[in-house]
Amino acid sequence: xxxxxxxxxxxxxxxxxxxxxxxxxxxxxxxxxxxxxxxxxxxxxxxxxxxxxxxxxxxxxxxxxxxxxxxxxxxxxxxxxxxxxxxxxxxxxxxxxxxxxxxxxxxxxxxxxxxxxxxxxxxxxxxxxxxxxxxxxxxxxxxxxxxxxxxxxxxxxxxxxxxxxxxxxxxxxxxxxxxxxxxxxxxxxxxxxxxxxxxxxxxxxxxxxxxxxxxxxxxxxxxxxxxxxxxxxxxxxxxxxxxxxxxxxxxxxxxx
Length: 256
Fold this sequence. Notes:
Elements: H1 4-8, E1 12-19, H2 25-34, E2 39-43, H3 55-63, E3 67-70, H4 83-101, E4 107-109, H5 117-125, E5 130-132, E6 152-153, H6 159-169, H7 172-182, H8 188-202, E7 204-210, H9 212-217, H10 221-231, E8 237-239, H11 242-255
C-alpha cells in the first residue's frame, strides 16, 4: 500500500473513451469540447457494421482536443486470430492513423473487450502505451496500463447483463465494487454522481466509455448532456485523454 503522502498527491482525473469511429463521434466530440471534457476515440480503419470517420473528420476531432486511438484495421476479435494477423491489425492500424494525423498514436482499445496475455504482449510490441478494456466499476489508479479499466459504459444495461459480462471477463474486483459501493444500481445518472463523489473524496479516475451510435439509437443525448454538466467544472479535477491518464499514473508511480 502507498504511504499517506503518495495517496494525498494522487490527482483526481476524469476521462472518456468512445469506440468504433461512427460519424456521430463528431457530435459527441463537439459536446465534450463544450463542457471542457476530453475524449479518446478508438477508430478502426474499416468496419462492416457502419460507416466510419473519414480523414477530415479525424483531423477535426484532434482540433477539438480529442485523442485518436487505434481499434485495429478491421475490428476483429483478436483472440481468435493467429499471431501474424494480430500483428497486422495492430501495426497497420497505428501506422494508418499516424499517416492521417501526422503524429504518433499511443492508445489502443481491444475490439469487443477481448484480450489475453498473448494479445497484451502484441499490443506492447506494436508500440502502444496503453490497452483499454471494458473491465468496469473501477476508479482506482492501480492497474496494468495494458489492461486499462473503465468506470461504466454509457448504455442502459440491466443488472443481469452487467453481472454476466463481469463474470465472463473475470472482473471480480469490479463486481465487488459495484455491490459494495453502488448496491447493484444501474441508473446511469446516479452511478455517475456516486462515482464522481468517490473520485473527488478519495482520488482516482472516473472513466466513462461508450458508442456514439448507441446514444443516437437509444435517444440518450439529453441524458449525456446532464452527465457532462454534472462532471464538468469540478475543482481540483484534471480532464484528460486516456493517454494523459496513463502518463500521469506512471509519473506518480515513478515518484514513489
